[in-house]
Write a sequence for this structure.
């Protein structure tokens, strides 16, 4: 059981969702984040004030999956998010100690396996 | 109404001039108001660029109109186009403009604001993707080769006007011209990258309503000023500008209720624009009762075109064709049915015994779209051959604001590091490539 964290371009978020859906990965959280991963800065000017904007908007996916789903999830995120330009983002995979489904109290693998209806 | 104006034709009337000065300012305000309306309808990453397309129309059309456009539209009574006597505002002074009781300068300034907003209107078809530089070149050429010609036809003593077509405040030159040019522009520039794939939603509907409200306010100068004074036609057009959009707004809300069981805010804002456009050509020619009826009936074709258009492959993004082209077309034709000489002192429509008026109106409703669509199509094809119409795809993903203006509509300020240029050191060129 792993937590897959994908940080991607906001304009690719929809493609990632599509790819995850096709890979039959269900159960996704996403949030808007700002970050800096080595891409070039944007320079903006407001009247006399010129600034370098170092943080870019990104979207962070968090997906808890059972072990057989780790690779398909990573492939789906890469497929959806890749443009080939600097700034496409990163994927981090971390181990999960425990997961609980609040409604039923199910734990671990059963908790991260989606139920129908 | 015709008689008193002719009697004073050689003299400036202070009351008329005072109103026309105010009306000119009202119409100029409509262009930033349109900027608000359009900016609210696009995604936040393109809000500034969309607004700036409207603002740039003031800069560009304001200049081309004074240098050449005004002369082409309003000098003499040539069939197709005016002369060159007023180029660079030569001879445009304090003496009253022929046929009016206001100084020629005021007449010019009032007409300039019409040219400006017409150019700005077209931008609605190409927002979120067109290159800003190419847009400015397009605006400059369009404001010389399309707008003055149609303004001359419709209200500068050109062939339509002399042939008997009635157009009070710009159904030909403003509404149909912008609407059908917008259709051509959307076809030539092409669809947005994500069009038809994901929902591309308005980012701020409050801006949309605010812009629509300010447009309506300005429209009282637009229609109310098109009588060039404070005579009966102006009073009639002014009041009809209140009635017709109110009827359209009401009808739109009912249609929304029937279709989706909810009244939408963006729909209401759109209805205000449609109603104002419907009454633009007809303002000073139809009775207040018919203005209400026009607002009600005219809502239907525009409503259903707006519902249908997103199902097509034509990404005419902000529906200039439906809200301006089709509404202007409907208003121009309506004059042919319901104009009343007892109200306008000029001509009756079909319902009041003069079927010929409908023929004159139909001629305008046929010729204007052909010229506007054809010229804009050719113009953009030629422009596209010498400069790119749109930027590369990654730019479109990042948003036009950051690419073409180096600003954001809603900067967070987080992670913004102040750049203080040392003496003699160049400020780095905005780096847009992520």
């Amino acid at each position: 059981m792993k937590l897959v964290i994908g940080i991607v371009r906001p304009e690719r978020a929809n493609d990632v969702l599509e790819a995850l859906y096709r890979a039959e990965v269900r159960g996704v959280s996403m949030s808007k984040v700002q970050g800096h991963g080595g891409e070039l800065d944007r320079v903006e000017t407001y009247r006399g004030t010129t600034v370098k904007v170092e943080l870019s908007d990104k979207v962070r996916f968090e997906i808890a999956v059972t072990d057989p789903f780790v690779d398909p999830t990573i492939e789906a995120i890469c497929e959806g998010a890749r443009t080939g330009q600097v700034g496409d983002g990163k994927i981090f995979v971390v181990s999960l100690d425990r997961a609980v489904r609040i409604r039923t109290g199910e734990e671990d693998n059963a908790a991260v396996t989606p139920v129908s209806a | 109404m015709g008689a008193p104006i002719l009697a004073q034709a050689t003299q400036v009337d202070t009351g008329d001039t005072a109103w026309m000065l105010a009306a000119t300012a009202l119409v100029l305000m409509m262009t930033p108001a349109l900027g608000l309306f359009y900016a609210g309808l696009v995604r936040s990453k393109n809000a500034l660029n969309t607004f700036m397309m409207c603002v740039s129309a003031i800069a560009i059309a304001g200049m081309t109109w004074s240098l050449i456009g005004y002369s082409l539209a309003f000098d003499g009574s040539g069939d197709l186009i005016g002369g060159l006597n007023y180029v660079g505002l030569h001879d445009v002074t304090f003496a009253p403009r022929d046929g009016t009781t206001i100084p020629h300068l005021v007449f010019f300034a009032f007409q300039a604001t019409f040219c400006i907003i017409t150019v700005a209107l077209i931008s609605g078809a190409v927002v979120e993707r067109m290159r800003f530089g190419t847009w400015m070149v397009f605006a400059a050429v369009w404001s010389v080769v399309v707008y003055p010609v149609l303004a001359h036809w419709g209200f500068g003593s050109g062939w339509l006007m002399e042939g008997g077509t009635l157009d009070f405040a710009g159904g030909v030159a403003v509404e149909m011209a912008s609407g059908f040019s917008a259709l051509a522009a959307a076809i030539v520039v092409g669809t947005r990258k994500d069009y038809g794939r994901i929902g591309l939603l308005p980012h701020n509907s409050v801006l949309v309503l605010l812009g629509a409200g300010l447009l309506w306010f300005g429209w009282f100068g637009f229609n109310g000023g098109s009588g060039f004074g404070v005579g009966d036609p102006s009073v009639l057009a002014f009041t009809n500008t209140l009635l017709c959009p109110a009827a359209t707004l009401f009808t739109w809300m009912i249609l929304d209720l029937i279709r989706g069981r909810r009244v939408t805010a963006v729909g209401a804002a759109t209805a205000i624009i449609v109603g104002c456009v419907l009454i633009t050509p007809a303002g000073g020619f139809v009775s207040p009762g018919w203005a209400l009826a026009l607002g009600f009936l005219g809502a239907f074709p525009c409503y259903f075109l707006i519902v249908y258009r997103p199902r097509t492959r034509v990404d005419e993004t902000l529906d200039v064709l439906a809200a301006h082209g089709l509404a202007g077309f409907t208003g121009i034709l309506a004059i042919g049915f319901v104009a009343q000489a007892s109200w306008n002192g000029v001509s009756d429509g079909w319902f009041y015994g003069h079927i010929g008026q409908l023929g004159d109106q139909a001629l305008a409703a046929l010729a204007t779209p052909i010229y506007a669509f054809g010229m804009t199509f050719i113009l953009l094809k030629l422009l596209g051959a010498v400069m790119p119409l749109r930027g590369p795809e990654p730019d479109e993903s990042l948003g036009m604001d950051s690419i073409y203006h180096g600003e954001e509509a809603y900067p967070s300020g987080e992670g913004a590091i102040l750049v203080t240029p040392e003496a003699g050191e160049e400020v780095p060129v905005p780096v847009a490539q992520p």
Remarks:
- Helices of chain A lie at 13-22, 70-81, 108-112.
- The mean pLDDT of chain A is 88.
- Chain A touches chain B at residues 9, 11-12, 14, 34, 36, 39-46, 49-56, 83, 85-87 (CB under 8 Å).
- The longest helix of chain A spans residues 70-81.
